[in-house]
Amino acid sequence: MSTVLRFLTSRWGPIITGTVVGVLAPVLVMLGNPGNMGICVVCFTRDIAGALGLQRAGTVQYIRPEIIGFVLGALVAALAFKEFKPRTGSAPLVRFLLGMFAVFGALVFLGCPWRAYLRLAGGDWNAIFGILGLVAGIGLGIVFLRMGFSLGRSRPAPKAVGWVMPAIMVMLLVFLIVAPQFGRDASGNPTGPIFFSTTGPGSQHAPLLISLAVGLFIGFLAQRSRFCTVGAVRDMIMLKDSHLLNGVIALIVVAFITNFALGQFHPGFASQPVAQTNEWWNFGGMALAGLAFTLAGGCPGRQLFLAGEGDGDSAMFVGGMLVGAGFAHNFSIASSAAGPSAFGPITVIVGLVICVIIGLTMREAVATAKA
Amino acid sequence: MNNNIEIVDARGLSCPQPVMLTSKAIKKLNKGAIEVLADSGTARDNVSRLGKNSGWAVTVEEQPEGSYRIVLKK
Known about the structure:
The complex is a heterodimer. By secondary structure, chain A is an all-alpha fold. Chain A has helices at 2-7, 13-30, 41-51, 65-80, 92-109, 113-121, 126-146, 159-178, 208-225, 231-239, 245-262, 279-296, 300-308, 312-330, 344-361, and strands spanning 87-88, 155-156, 183-184, 190-191, 368-370. In chain A, the strands form 2 sheets. Chain A has a two-stranded antiparallel sheet with strand order 1-2. Chain A has a two-stranded antiparallel ribbon with strand order 3-4. In chain A, helix 7 (126-146) runs parallel beside helix 12 (279-296). The N and C termini of chain A lie far apart (42 Å). Chain B is of the alpha+beta class. Chain B has 2 helices and 4 strands, in the order E-H-E-H-E-E. Chain B has a 4-stranded mixed beta sheet, covered by helices on one side.
């Protein structure tokens, strides 16, 4: 057992994590999750925002146990390996904003980097434009990093700070199980404050305990292996380091094989599940997301795992994603199967401008000194 | 050789800054010692991997307050 656990911090760690995600994500689809959405951190956060009433698009409301599992699984791993280190203070408000804009961009494409890779592995060729956009956004982020971009240092914080996000996840689990309905609609029928879709993607989900177990398992593995779907591309471009990229390649290859074996591989552009075919805004949306994730230091999954380790700044990014997901539907930013929504494209442009300003203006004093 | 010791304080910095600062120090020194201070397991692992991949001998010490002192020597 200890050999296996040591393996997770070796160069095999990201590959093992990617392989596990590559098998389990398509299995979650087989068990009820929406097509090519075994795991999608942004979509699932959006569904949680809907379930909490932050957006009222009736088809995307569900408290996704996978997200709860990601944070709590990472928490367990961090506690077990003495890596639970509460910290905060690295430009939390900017991270909140970056979380919002990352979600805006990702919901124009209709998926986070995890789902972009999973869509590709399911034969959804629209994902190619999303992934190209993601790489472009990460590339732009690297330009800012090389120019000295930094959100500043975090500082050790009281233990309580680190427990906030895990506590919120436990609360979400209680809401998921209890699903309180003490509101009343115009006809007097019970409704809210927790909303679950009865039609559409929000109504499609694998059994609760299986989703939660998969989330916990992946959260544990990813905390140990530092799996990151954005860091993978960033480290390859910037440092010629394929450590994390090997994990993403494993994810895509294994998910392709699993989809093929389960009869879930449907190649093409048209009629893909929870997808739109506008290549320009698939590219643009993910360029914005890639830039925002790079400036914040990691993909949305990584932000959840770090939040599980006690990182209050990543928790702020997750908070930004949750609020941003509410805005994305209330302000007609998120795309639909018909294509980009009324304010999706302009939001991507505004988001890119704001992220470029953040990239150009956030600096920290040089931290290297001669002894 | 005292003038070949570089100290990198990467405590509190997000990915990939600890590795970027260490990489800069590696490029600056052809040989000598680089002492990197880090406070997360991720930074510790990434800096160690960079050092080993660049041909430096790496030792890691855990400090009493939970941070790490990673020494790269060549």
